[in-house]
Structure formats: C-alpha cells, structure tokens
Specification:
The longest helix has 20 residues. Helix 5 packs across helix 6. 50% of the residues lie in helices and 0% in strands. It has 6 helices and no strands. The relative contact order is 0.11.
C-alpha cells in the first residue's frame, strides 16, 4: 500500500563486501561494468508489463555490491549519512517531494562512521574555535579515533585525512552558523 503522504523508498539493508577490496582501477571499472550490465538487462525488459524484471534486479544488486566494495575499499562501512546527504541534494533539486517517515529507521546520530551536527542546531555546546584549532593539529588517525570515535585499524592515512578534513569543515560550519 502506498500512502502519498510519504516518499517511496527501497530497502537495502546491510551489504556484505568482498574480502581484500582495494581502491584501484579494477574496482572502479567493476562499477562501470555492472552499470553497463544493468543497462543491458533494462534493454531486454518488456517495458509494457515489467512482468519479468528478475534479470534487471539481479544486475542492480551486482552493481550495488560493486559500489559497496568500492566504499569499503576507501574505508567507509556506513553509507547512511552519505545517502541522506544525496537525498537532501535531490530534494533541493525537486526530484523527491514526498515526506519521509523515518520512525522505523536508524537516525543520522546512529551512523557509526560520522558525527552528525543536526541542521536545526547551529552550534555544538561543547565545541569552540579553540577546540577546533587544537584538534586540527592532531594526526588524521588520532583525530578520527579520538574525536570522531571511529576505529581506524587497517584504514589508510590518506582516507583518515579526508575524513578529518570533512569533519573539521562540518564543525566549522556549525560554529559559524552555516548549514
């Protein structure tokens, strides 16, 4: 049953990733290969009835698997915040207009990879410019472990640096009153 008060969603759940993923050209090409296979399955689909979409669904799952493998290869094991950010961008572009009932879903605050500063909160009460300045001098791995609270075992220093920079920018925006 579809209630047009809420936005349609597709449930994914957790996606197990391959062992020993690497952020290399082969993994990036795998995403493209799977996307091409999705297009091929779509071309074969009966567009009038959509009666047998099993091949298309299987190819979509292969593509999702390849994307999750790539995310894992760069140290991301929780895409929820990034997907919500993507949804927000698409809402601003008018592509998604329905309301979302998130009552049964995990909240942004429960995402394990990121610390989220709610949009309605302009400043974290415990944060200060001095704290941000102090924390910015930390090593990327140390920052991610101590400030973000992320286990950084087997995570490359470059990935930790990116996470640190993004987190510091969010903190600065929150301190400055920007969304």
């Amino acid at each position: 049953m579809f209630d047009d008060t809420y936005q349609n969603t597709v449930e994914l759940g957790s996606v197990a990733v391959f062992d020993n993923v690497e952020c290399g050209k082969a993994q990036a090409m795998k995403v493209l290969e799977e996307a091409a296979e999705v297009f091929g399955a779509w071309q074969k689909l009966d567009k009038d009835t959509f009666s047998d979409s099993s091949d298309l669904i299987a190819e979509l799952c292969d593509m999702i698997q390849a994307c999750c493998n790539m995310a894992a290869a760069v140290g991301c094991d929780d895409l929820r915040l990034a997907l919500w950010d993507c949804e927000d961008r698409n809402r601003k572009r008018g592509r998604i207009t329905g309301m979302v009932d998130r009552g049964s879903q995990c909240t942004r605050e429960k995402c394990k990879r990121f610390v989220f500063v709610p949009i309605e909160v302009r400043q974290k009460s415990s944060d200060s410019w001095e704290a941000i300045e102090h924390d910015s001098a930390m090593s990327p791995i140390g920052y991610c472990e101590q400030v973000i609270g992320q286990d950084m075992a087997n995570v490359h220093n470059v990935t930790a640096g990116i996470m640190m920079c993004k987190h510091l920018v969010k903190r600065c925006k929150a301190m400055g009153g920007a969304e």
